[in-house]
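Revision sheet: structure tokens.
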Amino acid sequence: MNWGVLNGGFHTVQVQIRNTAGGTFSTEPHLVTVVKPGDFEFLDQFDLSHATARVQDGTLIVVQGVKIRDKASGQSKVVDVFLQWMQSIQALAIVASNTVSG
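Predicted:
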């Protein structure tokens, strides 16, 4: 699933599986947050070469001055991204973004 095709913000997702006998199984609904740096659907560049980073409030990593590029249009923007450790996926995830210039 390319989450980037959705609007940025909160969405509820649920998976339903149907077998060949017609039986179904559904997961519980889950809330997901779609973050779209630069409001781009798919990034083909995420350049940290001129970026700076700092820790905010002890848990949030703020990376300022990230140059990103949209794969479809080739348009570039400079954004700040906000990263947080997500225990459930054992990784840093982008939880917010704002455009500095475009």
